[in-house]
Amino acid sequence: MQKLTRIITLSVALTVVSGCSYVGVYKRDIPQGNLVNQEMVSQLQPGMSKEQVTYVMGRPLLEAPFDASQWDYVFRLDKAYGDVEQRRVTLTFDPQGRLANIEQQGDLSSDLPFESDDGMGPATEGTNPMDSLTDENMQLQAPSRTQPVSQP
């Protein structure tokens, strides 16, 4: 009976410790969609072709499936410990494929607080990972060759 009590107590303790954390959970900002800002939108002018718009804004996140005359550029930033910021730019084209209307939603003028990742991370496919190392990193990772080699 005493052995059963110990097993049950140990299992309950492990369940509580592993499932319920009072320390907190790490969260990170989640950006999604096309990053759009006021500088990009200010370059747009009515009468621009779709190719010119694509050069300035990039490919749209959403193209209406039944009506190719409307492009939506949507950006959403779900802040880890804050609110959700959403920006949307809707572009409408006339039947000749020229930009006719620009609609904006959200604050496009504010800068987004992206943190820079100074970690090494994975290398981009097709590149040499050693090319991204700085001289300082190379000295930290390379074995020291200043010791004399003893010869027999």
Could you explain the architecture of this structure?
There is one protein chain. This protein is of the alpha+beta class. The protein has a domain at about 25-110: Beta-lactamase Inhibitory Protein, Chain:B, domain 1. The chain is about 25% helix and about 20% strand. It contains 4 helices and 5 strands. It has helices at about 1-20, 40, 50-55, 135-140; strands at about 30-35, 60-65, 70-80, 85-95, 100-105. Strands 1, 2, 3, 4 and 5 form a 5-stranded antiparallel β-sheet that branches. The chain starts with a helix and ends in an 11-residue tail after the last helix. The mean pLDDT is about 75.
What is the residue-mean pLDDT, rounded to a whole number?
A: 75
Sheet having the most strands:
5 strands, antiparallel
Share of residues in strands: 15-25%
Rg, alpha carbons: 27 Å
Poorly predicted tracts of residues:
none
- The number of helices is 4
- Structural class call reads alpha+beta
Shape: elongated
Question: What is the level-2 CATH architecture name of the domain at 27-109?
Answer: 2-Layer Sandwich
Which fold does the CATH topology of the domain at 27-109 refer to? Answer: Beta-lactamase Inhibitory Protein, Chain:B, domain 1
What share of the residues lie within helices?
Answer: 25-40%
